[in-house]
Amino acid sequence: MCGIFGYVGQKDAVPILLKGLSRLEYRGYDSAGIAVLDNSAHLIVRKKKGKVKELAASLNQHRNAPHGTIGLGHTRWATHGAPNDSNAHPHLDCSEKIAVIHNGIIENYVELKEALKAEGHQFRSNTDSEVLAHLVEKFYKKTGTVKEALKLAVAKARGSYAVGVIHEDEPGRITATRVDSPLVVGVGKHENFIASDVSAILEHTREAVAIENGEIVVLDGDSYQLSGANGRVVKRAPRHVQWNVEEAEKQGYAHFMLKEIFEQPGIIEGLIQKRLCKTGMRFEELKIKKSRLAQVKNVHIVACGTSYHAGLVGKYILETLTPLTVSVDNSSEFRYRDPKVDRSSLVILISQSGETADTLAALREAKKRGAVVLAIVNVLGSTIEREADGVIYTYAGPEIAVASTKAYTAQLAALYSLAFHLGLEVFPPKNPKRKAELFDLLAEFKKIPGAMSEFLAEYRIDRANWDANCAEYNRRYHKSLERYFKTAPAKRKRAPNAFFMYLGRNINYPSALEGALKLKEIAYISAEGYAAGEMKHGPIALIDENPWVVCIAVDSPTYEKMISNIEEIKARSGLITAIVTKGNEAVKKLGLYLYIEVPKTSELFSPLVIALPLQLIAYHVAKEFKEEIDQPRNLAKSVTVE
Ligand code: AGP
Q1: Which CATH architecture has domain 451-624?
Q2: Percent of the chain beyond pLDDT 70?
Q3: Mutate-to-test residue for ligand 1 from 77, 181, 261, 356, highest number of ligand atoms within 8 A of CB
């Protein structure tokens, strides 16, 4: 979904641009590029297929880094045009005096490109973005300022964009705008920045201004001027960002993913402490009045990917702790099915980035239908937060690994907290016994971070075994592959299937889906999550000695049913890993491949603890198969296109 970054100040721009881009790489890493106005105000572009570190290495090797104090940078997630050098950003106009970086999609680029070509513009790439460079060139000739030219250029474009522009004829100035793609301005001392996300500017400044749809910002080293779509000056003071730069570093961990897994107990603990009050759970930031929430008759949770899985768990949580009925939708489907959403509905959008295009579209649809709209987001100041009626922050800090871990459990914690708030304060139970039950559960919720820490402490001790078990799986799989290829082609049966199946029941059915998604994302091995009861309705056909079957068999009312499923898989030679409650000796007698013990909790809170081994299975398998854990292929952290 691309990361954009710009610097204007007094320092050498290139190292700052490269560092900023490396912080934004989670957004895309097919190619990277920079454009710098050098000390004689000449525009110099360096761009390359591959990651930011490859661009940096090439600048080093060729000793051709430009020197100047203003520049733009881009890291790409390809939408239009293959990932190669010429499609990498920045893109130039015909005169090579204007450089443009773009995040988003210009939907009508074909017609714009044809029209520009007919006017004599020469294109060098297959991207949609390049039309913006030529449009700015065309309108600059008419208006004489980049700001006015950019305004006219984006008026011609349909789609989503965050765009940054520099021009040789306006040295010392960056002009930028956005519609439906994120853009912030970082305000420093004698230096200013533009970026797709605050994590890229944290080491320079923690003062940031979010740019609203349609606004144009012009910045030099000492000031920024904002104007609205109507041309009027907009005064907006910077907001202080709570995150700090240490949170965006690996701090000695081999991967961001591992660091983020380990951060989880602390994050959940912090969230609980922040919100706990005598009467239940309170949110400073919620903004929606209790009286408005009390009118709610039904809840709809809408999200994508991992956030959607959090939403699925959220259905169980809210239906257990409140009298409300809950439906859950993928954001990309929500608005196509005429959802029965009106003034009596609470629509909860869950999004780590707060920028996911489908979730944003769902939010707008829900608002149109009169629902009260609540966002659960991690990135402060994001578009989804700004457009929602109210917000609950997950306070997970910057999540850098593309595969979400800490944001997921923080979303779960937010959902538990919201459910306690609704269940105890908005819809207080009339029956005192029920009220006491809810307070007992709340008391247990407080202990969950402790259970998570306990699991991670034991994992630390046992870590070598996790590696050994994954190596053993790898060995077994490769042995069956060898056997297969040694067999004469005419005699070969099915090729061995490296496949992971995750089975869970009730509130841990979504945990199974999330476990499978984590593995797919970073280990590139097919994996599916199923409600264990569904296994006999099809997936059991996949079972032989090859697939690795992860069964969530913690203490719960459905435990015995899960054990029956385990027996059924065992009877078909399945390779089973059971996630069980610590102290369960009975299951150990079943002679399975692996047991992972988690501390005892009630079933309601078990998804928080179970998330940890599921994340770690994916992590260790990906490590064993030597995959790039933090930046999996084809993915981007923030999906700002539909
Ligand atoms: C999670 O590991 C994924 N990378 C992805 O599924 C993600 O959860 C999804 O794209 C939604 O993103 P959001 O939470 O920022 O809206």
Answers
A1: 3-Layer(aba) Sandwich (3.40)
A2: 99
A3: 356
Ligand 1 pocket, residue 411 CB under 6 Å:
no
CATH fit for domain 256-446, picks 3.40.50.10490, 3.30.70.1350, 3.30.70.890, 3.30.70.1170: 3.40.50.10490
304 an active-site residue?
Answer: no
Which residue has better confidence, 536 or 168?
168
Residue from 308, 520, 637, 641 to probe ligand 1 pocket by mutation (most atoms less than 8 Å from CB): 637
- At residue 461 the predicted structure's pLDDT band, cuts being 50, 70 and 90, is confident
Query: Fold identical between 3-247 and 451-624?
Result: no
Class of domain 3-247: alpha beta
Report pTM.
0.80
Tell whether ligand 1 has an atom less than 6 A from the beta carbon of residue 399: no
Number of H helices, E strands in the chain: 16, 27
- Confidence (pLDDT) at 608: 98
Q: Is there an atom of ligand 1 within 6 Å of 356 CB?
A: yes
Ligand 1 binding pocket includes 304 (Cβ within 6 Å)? yes
Cα 518 to middle of ligand 1, angstroms: 11
Question: 593-629, pLDDT tens digit by residue?
Answer: 889 999 999 999 999 999 999 999 999 999 999 998 9
- Tracing tokens 């994954």 back to the chain, one arrives at 470
The CB of 331 under 6 Å from ligand 1? The reply is: no
- Residue 611's H or E segment, with its range, is helix 606-624
Spans of all domains in the chain: 3-247, 256-446, 451-624
- Report which protein residue has its CA nearest ligand 1's atom 16: 351
Q: Exposure of 461 by Cβ count < 10 A (0-12 exposed, 13-18 middle, 19+ buried)?
A: exposed
| pLDDT score of 642 more than 80 | no
The Cα–Cα gap between 581 and 601 comes to: 8
